[in-house]
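Hey, I'm writing a tutorial for new members on how sequence and structure tokens pair up, and I'd like a real worked example in the thread rather than a made-up one. If someone can provide the structure for the chain below, I'll link this post from the tutorial.
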Amino acid sequence: MLAFTYWLLKPSEESETAKYLIHFNESVLGLNIDAPVKYRGINVGKVSQLKINPKNSEQVEVLVTILESTPIKSSTVAKLTAQGITGLSYINLSLGDNNAPSLKATKGEKYPIIQTVPSFFENFEQTLGTVSTQLSKTLSKTEELLNDENQAQITLVLKRSAGFMDRMERLLNDESITNFHSSMENFASASKKLDNLVPKVDIFVNKSLIWEDEIAKTFNSIMNSYLGIRASADEVKKAVENGEFNIKEIAVDVVPTMNNTFIELQHLIIQIQETLNQYKRSPGDILFKQEEIKKGPGEK
């Protein structure tokens, strides 16, 4: 093993080594001197030195020796990786951007510094810490939610909910459901009767208009008769004023006209009286024609 390591790191014209610094922000437990440095799973170097970063006591500074032929770019990152269940660790390098420039030492630094990314255990610890923090906050909020006052309110809400459900159960018993169905049937029946009544209302309105027209015609006839009587009276008055009063001529010309007018007026009054008497006996007769005509003896 020592011979292989010596052969691997022995400087030559074809293969020489270069030193790099890596600053870890996490624990390097399991990482020892001479621990492998791998590039995508291939051994390319070893750990040469471990110490606290003199510029930042929160970091561990690791000096590594790597084959110079290894493509260390400015985008290359180092990650601390566990070796199975042995408890040992090694450093794994990832290239990053293939077109990135080669990594060079910055001004004031002896060696180039390779950037790091958190290890699996570091990510797990951070995630666990975040989950623990969130769980703690959740428990704290739950405790605040379940204080004495809120518990009393929750108890009151549960009691009211139970009371409401009990009333609903009593309301929706078999008798209530039967009554509800009966009400719905009555409503349907009333709706049907209302639908049947609407055409009859239309008939009532139409017949009322006809009845009003007949009454109007009757009154117009009465008015015409009145005008006829008034005209005859004016003729008599005019004859008397002119000294042409001749009872024979008046009897021949005016009396028959007045007699006919009085007869027509009498017939109209009788018709109006019969109509009013019919409406008084059976008001619904205008709409439904419900009155039965009483027939005399022997009439069919």
